[in-house]
Amino acid sequence: MTEPRWLDEKQARAWRGYRRMRALLDLQITRDLAADSGLSDADYDVLSNLSETSPHRLRLTELATTMLWSKSRLSHHLTRMQQRGLVDREECAGDARGSIIVLTEAGLRAIEEAAPHHVASVRRHLIDLLTEDEIAALDSLTHRVITRLTTPT
Fold this sequence. Notes:
Elements (H helix, E strand, L loop, with lengths): L8 H29 L3 H11 L5 E3 H8 L3 H13 L3 E6 L2 E9 L1 H21 L6 H19 L3
Antiparallel strand pairs: 1-3, 2-3
């Protein structure tokens, strides 16, 4: 086995800082979302993904892929959201095992009411703390990592 390429002190500090920042940022934005709208982070992800499609519907498999969730996990979460009237399921024509997830009027209202508070939280805890150059750098580095992680090798 080859010797690992250990992080130097500066790299290790940056990595630890990133991990701590990510955990604290996710926690704070999730808390704000729940306090402002009563939605969980997962609820918001489902509703925002559906609201950004026309006509507010996606196949369960496509939604699971987008959210990086298993179909089973998403299906259980959707059942709870369906009980709250936020989404509905329709059969998928030509695929007896497939289903289409549909944003209900209540779900659309919920995401429309939550979005302004959510973006305010994102601004308050991240975006407004950065300069334009830092936002450009964040955009560049996040997309470089996303490309690496989503491109088959």
